Amino acid sequence: MRERRPISASDALSSVRYEIRGQLSRRAREMDRAGYEIISLNIGNPGAFGFRTPETMRLAMIENLKASEGYGHQKGIFPAREAVVMQQQARGVVGMSAETVFMGNGVSELIDLTLRALLDSGDEVLIPSPDYPLWTAAVNLNRGRAVHYPCRAENGFVPDPVELERLIGPRTRAIVVINPNNPTGAVYPRPVLEAIARLAEKHQLIVFSDEIYDQVLYDQAQFIPMATLVQQTLCCTLSGLSKVYRACGYRCGWAVFSGNLEQAGDYLAGLELLASLRLCANVPAQWAVQTALGGYQSIHELTDPGGRLYESRRTIIEAVARSQYLRLVAPAGAMYAFPEVRADVLPDFDDRQFAMDLLEQKHVLVAPGTSFNLTQRNHFRITNLPEPRVLEAVFERIEALLDGYAEGHGGRVRPQLAVVPALLAKN
Q1: Domains located in the chain, CATH noted
Q2: Is a pLDDT exceeding 80 seen at residue 413?
């Protein structure tokens, strides 16, 4: 008998990380099975916090179940794709049609497919830091190289187009924009988006615009669809039902191509080939798209003052303002906040150790900032999906843990502005 050898994972996975569901999450499940009550704030999963998908969407799926039993078209069923086109046209996007819309099993699948159809070995993609880590992982898994452009807290987590252009090289193929941003909650102002669009056109780069949180906005923040600004190069807008319509489990997203389509025929044919190989996207959920996009937009009840998301966000902002250790760029959109631990108070702070200590000692699960391809080790991401009373308790536990850190290291607290207003004047 031949010697038994360990079965190793692919070397391609050595550059991939997804700590949102990684070691910390596994430890939280172990503690939960042992009887501990864990407050899990590491994932933006509305259904886990009592949010419901609009009933009209559920009914649309039920009424069309008979038509969902066979494979659908590789690009998606026509009513769903046409509803996406109508939404984009209403926002001022021109030049696309149902033929340039691809439905997928969530935006996650489409990120992988759109990059796989594009990249050759060594091609580079510009990705924000911090980012949603699937973008970096998908570039690396598809033989590319992720090049991160900084979005700094002191600039409201908004990128600097001048700094971004310096990173463009001969192998650069695309720029990724995540707006509203996950994990920071930043909503990019029009001048910045226009500058990025001009850069992409100048260097003939594809723009991948991740807009899954496009209607999750607070305090008059204004969302600008990237496709309304990109004309002379290809733009791919990605969105879906998961967040705005609280339907993560439906796994229904779309990628819409606009801009310079004439030069993209070969690429789009390659993408259709990949879409055909997976046969089709989940058909039942696609029947909910037309109802979702064309119906009453209940998300505004949650994001306006008095709404659940708005008030939970307010709770986070106020808790940080009271903290001796934290500061925050107030999130203008999305479902997260990205607090920073003040280096002048806790200079030896380590986000991963903090996240593990918070879980083990205080039974709260958050995502460390370095999980989002950030080099600084003094941030963490928290979702504002829980009710305010839960978040109040969470920040009491965070403050108690940081008190222990300060006492253990002889830390001295100096008063400082804790909450940095979002740059709403530019939005």
Answers
A1: 12-51+301-426 (3.90.1150.10), 55-294 (3.40.640.10)
A2: no
